[in-house]
Amino acid sequence: MSATIDRPAPAETTTEAVVARLDAATSAFDAPFAAVHLPTLDANAADLVRRASGTPIRVASKSVRARAVLERALGAGLTESGGFRGIMAYSLREALWLVEKGARDVLMGYPTVDRAALADLASDADARQAITLMVDCAEHLDVIAAAGATGARLCLDVDASLRIGPVHLGVRRSPLRTPDAAATLARVAASRGFAVVGVMFYEAQIAGLPDSSAAVRLVKKASASELSTRRGAVVDAVTSVVGRLEIVNSGGTGSLEVSSADPAVTEVTAGSGLFVPTLFDRYRAFTPRPAMFFALDAVRRPTPKIATLFSGGYIASGPAGASRVPTPVWPAGLKLLRNEGAGEVQTPVTGLAASALRIGDRVWFRHAKAGELCERFTAVHLVDAGGAVTTVPTYRGEGQCFG
Fold first, then answer.
1. pLDDT single digits (tens) 353-367
2. Sign of the CA dihedral running 302, 307, 309, 312
């Protein structure tokens, strides 16, 4: 499947209009199911390219988990004005499978200690050329070597968090932080026969943090400044050991402008920005255009003011709380019950629109995160501008579950 990246914005410019188009196009399907509005998806892809300002974008498969959508983004290729190139995978087994299906540039987003998968990598010449493993300590080298994959392509994961005294702002990822530490690991890896081809910096405290207050924006600005200086020093230090790096990866959907502005960065990563889940609603850098939704049917009317829907307990990962719960968006005016929320087998809703829902009526939701929704379905329905539907498998629909 191919696509261009300069498509116009969809005619349906509001969430309500998009969902109304999806609802009409999928009326023959039985819920629960997931659907994507392709004109909005394409407009989001074009906006990501615009925001990256010519820096290539690596697609984060964790935030997609449907090969047809990965291929749609990658199908445009890379032009002088930017575009999509390569995949960032979250599992080595996933990366091996994607290479089997034709992928030729897969960067692991996380280290792996999957010995069987590493042995498969070691025995597959195509996979060894296509896949770059992520490491952040010498113990990772030991595991890879023990599986017979000495000589594998490696990328060093460098801590991109902001530290102010004892305060750590960001995710707990890599123990590597300083130029000296990164250069030391690069030197050890090279001496053991590995090919160190890149470094990665994921600034979660910028990319994954909505612009919810002036204080948050100030912290993000300070973090970007600190990281830009340190990132350049790390790149210089590692380059002095192994030579020119193919990959200096940084960023995410929420920080493309910041990351791509650094001349040391050769590529940025994005995936959630294609679907735009609710966690990306409060960023100043871009206007959210939700493209992916899921539908549930009303199966009970326990009271005149409550309608109960089948299924729907699709809670997102991360710290437990209201931000990880799916949101009803159509019909407008619905809300979850505080004491039940979204349940595994039933989800009651109330609000102004609930009293008008009849048995069999449909309610549409947005998920809090992007690709995680695909773990709940074996297929997703892609709806084009004319209302035509193409049903494609998710990873699960292709019999794949990578944890």
1. 999 999 999 999 999
2. negative
